Amino acid sequence: MLALVTEPAVPHSTRVDDVPEPIEDGVLLRVLEVGVCGTDREISEGLFGVPAHGASLVLGHESLAIVERDGHGFSKGDLVTATVRRSCHHCIACEEGAPDSCLTGDYSERGITRLDGFARELVVEDPEQLIPIPAGLGRLGVLAEPTSICERAIRHALTIGGRQPWQLERALVVGAGAVGMISTYLLRLAGIDVWTASLEPSSDLATASGARYVSTKETPLAELRKETDGFDLVISAVPDAQVMADSLGLLRRSGVACLLGIDGRPQAVSIDGPVLGLDAILENRVLFGSVNAHRQDWLAAVASLDRARERWPEALEAFVGLRVPLDRFAEAFAYRGVKATLVLQD
Ligand code: BGC
What we know:
By secondary structure, the protein is α/β, with parallel strands linked by helices. The chain is 29% helix and 26% strand. It contains 11 helices and 19 strands. Strands 3, 5, 6, 10, 11, 18 and 19 form a 7-stranded mixed beta sheet that branches. A 6-stranded parallel beta sheet has the order 14-13-12-15-16-17, with helices on both faces. Strand 12, helix 4 and strand 13 form a beta-alpha-beta unit. The longest helix is centred in the middle third of the chain and has 18 residues. The model has no long low-confidence stretch (mean pLDDT 97). The protein binds beta-D-glucopyranose (BGC). The site of beta-D-glucopyranose (BGC) has 11 residues, from helix 3.
């Protein structure tokens, strides 16, 4: 059967290849669609990822699949997605079912680290890792994985903010890719006053949710800080460490900034002295990072996506701007809209 295979650490080795059909025990799934994200691009450029066996890895961690035969509590035809990160089996977080908080780094991740992904026709999955997708959500279920990342980030931000009396009223989301846009929609669902900022001149998708859109080419974020008096929450979803460092200065009292974009470039970034040495302390501000998602975030993600689809049906449909078959993966990787996917089955 066909799969999108790569050799991590070997740039541009990604190709469609023939791989054996799965024979393990578990739930047999037929993959419908996989989403493509920055991590897939980085693996493909040889910058990230660990092979699953030998030197190769099947890509794809944002999955939407259909159950192929009854069993393990699932019925043929059920729509499902599956978690990405799996237990290291030797830390207290993984033992508690929270590999998103793994303490050793010895976890595996579907399509990323030591475990083949979903960009192939058939996969056998552990039933405990499956997340049911409501039939009404249909192909939008492919957004469950990036949504789970945003759910976790917001859940953690609320926990951190809630360590003291605090109200989340005004949020800034920096970045209008999938994670930025989904975060915008989740915060709008919760009734938060959201500002979404990116380099693009405009974003119909952001404003469709009721968020205010700011083009940072016209209004630098520091100016927005002055205009608004700062934010209770900043979600930084751009691959730029300087923008991430700047987010501490965009907060108001007791504000929380969450970093989600990845930027591994070796570089020094600067931070304003009084923002770090004075405001962060005197105003009880927090800057934290978040990765991956707990099962509870996956379940919340699917429920939120379904609510968002009911409220903004056209906008949600527009999130996936490019759907191409597996052999056109290069187009999906080059796509710079919110989300591109690879379709394995219509
Ligand atoms: C995925 C996460 C994963 C992270 C690090 C992200 O693209 O969404 O599930 O933990 O990469 O590998």
